[in-house]
Automatic annotation (TrEMBL):
Superkingdom assignment: Archaea
Name recorded for this polypeptide: PD-(D/E)XK nuclease family protein
Residue intervals of the PD-(D/E)XK endonuclease-like domain: 39-184
Species this chain originates from: Halobaculum litoreum
SUPFAM superfamilies per the UniProt record, alphabetical: Restriction endonuclease-like
InterPro entries in the record: PDDEXK-like_dom_sf (IPR011604), PDDEXK_AddAB-type (IPR038726), Restrct_endonuc-II-like (IPR011335)
Length: 187
């Protein structure tokens, strides 16, 4: 719901369509389905509000914002022994300033309530290859802009965590791919 932003007057209809489209059976009685859809909508609103807050503190004016930003680029694959590496995907939310792409990726993982900071750090590390790929793709498409990547954890208090180290993302991505290939070949 964060990305598609259905109109309020179609929220429940949209939620039911999504469930039906994915052949999801819901065993909630009475208004339970509508209550679950309302909860999902509130979570999405909270996540979007956190993104708005984060964008208020960036340098420069936000010139454009995109939900489900489609990215398809080609990277020279020479460093990993192939002609090219094709990167493609949809970035949940991108905001553009004069010199920076601000990437926000929604994560609906359940965060361990024990040590929240450690759980967020572990999820950030888990998702790092995806975030580096986003940064590499955007840097390839427009090398004049920096890329700042943030994960938006929608569980609980809706935390935003900045993923460090997206400089030289293309080189880092190729190094990660090379290591992965070496690991696979050594098995």
């Amino acid at each position: 719901m964060c990305e598609v932003r259905p109109p309020d007057n179609r929220l429940h209809e949209f939620g039911r369509e999504v469930l039906a489209e994915h052949d999801e059976t819901v065993s909630i009685e009475g208004n339970g389905v509508d209550d679950a859809i309302d909860t999902a909508a509130r979570t999405a609103d909270r996540a979007r509000a956190r993104i708005d807050d984060a964008l208020e503190s960036v340098d420069g004016e936000v010139r454009a914002r995109y939900d489900e930003f489609r990215l398809d680029v080609e990277v020279d694959g020479g460093p990993v022994g192939v002609d090219r590496v094709d990167l493609g995907g949809e970035i949940d939310h991108v905001a553009v300033t004069d010199d920076t792409y601000h990437v926000f990726d929604y994560k609906t993982d359940r965060i361990d309530t024990g040590d929240v900071d450690a759980a967020v750090e572990a999820r950030m590390e888990h998702h790092r290859p995806q975030m580096v790929a986003y940064a590499a793709g955007l840097q390839t498409a427009d090398p004049t802009r920096d890329v700042v990547v943030r994960l938006v954890f929608t569980d609980g208090e809706c935390r935003i965590a900045r993923v460090a180290g997206t400089d030289d993302a293309v080189d880092r991505l190729l190094a990660m791919l090379d290591q992965r290939l070496q690991d696979l070949l050594s098995k």
